[in-house]
Design brief:
By secondary structure, the chain is of the alpha/beta class. It has 9 helices and 12 strands.
Length: 277
């Protein structure tokens, strides 16, 4: 598209939202066109740049509702807020990038329905490295075959509300797809007591919550005599933000559909949306 991509940041008062605002203002290809927060939030009416700690006003006030169409809404709010932003995006005809995790089936259905009307990306992790890890995990599971046990271990800060993380579930799904397994039948969330010998096709998923860990994910492939580990560690939330803003640029001007971060990164060849159902 010619010109700058106009984005609105939803959840602008949160840690991710503030960094998204700051990084949007730094990017010459982006224009901050909105900063959104829930009704009753005390930051409503404040300048988004000052709230983000940029040190100068940008003229964009934090509001409850989107004033009009933007090229893309970028949202990292809680599940309830994410569904409201889906409705905002559809109503305004704006694209949507959502990094919300912990969605229930009804909330996921709202995104599926919206993909028939707007271009959107719903991803458990927006970082470039993590999305490459999804592909590597699937490739490794496919290449190594049934002789290797698969375990996924994730670690996050003690305030994270959902467990396991959406990224861990995505990695487990990638491993299951690579192995040709139904994750619903083979996933095991932690172990206790005397579970007995490990079944060959089990995929273990384990969540650690401690301190201020931003995010760590490890996929273990192990067999007799060797172990392979694929590891992704986050030391700054900027990785998530930069990936989300890259996705916003990618979506601008696209036809309706459910797109993926793999498409944003060119990991799947020619760009085409997934079917919306």
């Amino acid at each position: 598209m010619a010109g700058k991509t106009r984005v609105a940041i939803s959840g602008a008062a949160g840690r991710m939202g503030r960094r998204l605002v700051a990084l949007t203002l730094e990017d010459p290809e982006l224009e901050l066109a909105g900063a959104l927060e829930a009704a009753g939030n005390p930051v409503l009416g404040q300048d988004a740049a000052l709230l983000a700690g940029v040190g100068r006003e940008c003229g964009v006030k934090v509001t409850e509702a989107l004033a009009g169409r933007v090229d893309c809404i970028v949202d990292f709010s809680a599940p309830e807020g994410a569904v409201r932003r889906v409705e905002d995006a559809v109503r305004s005809g704006s694209a949507l990038v959502a990094g919300t995790t912990g969605l229930d089936d009804k909330q996921k259905a709202a995104f599926t329905a919206a993909a028939g009307r707007i271009p959107l990306i719903l991803a458990p992790n927006m970082s470039v490295g993590a999305n490459l890890l999804f592909k590597l995990t699937g490739d490794a599971a496919r290449a190594l075959g049934a002789g290797y046990d698969i375990e996924v271990v994730e670690a996050h800060h003690h305030n994270k509300a959902d467990a396991p993380s959406g990224t861990a579930l995505g990695l487990a799904q990638a491993a299951a797809d690579g192995r040709g397994l139904d994750l619903r039948k083979h996933a095991v969330h932690g172990r206790s007591g005397r579970p007995g010998a490990r079944p060959r096709d089990e995929i273990g998923i384990h969540a650690v919550r401690a301190g201020d860990i931003i995010g760590e994910h490890t996929v273990i492939f192990a067999t007799g005599g060797e172990r392979i580990e694929l590891v992704h560690r986050v030391t700054s939330r900027d990785g998530f933000c930069l990936g989300a803003l890259r996705a916003a640029k990618f979506l601008a001007g696209k036809p309706p559909g459910a797109y993926t971060m793999a498409q944003v990164l060119g990991l799947l060849g020619p760009v085409a949306p997934r079917p919306s159902s």
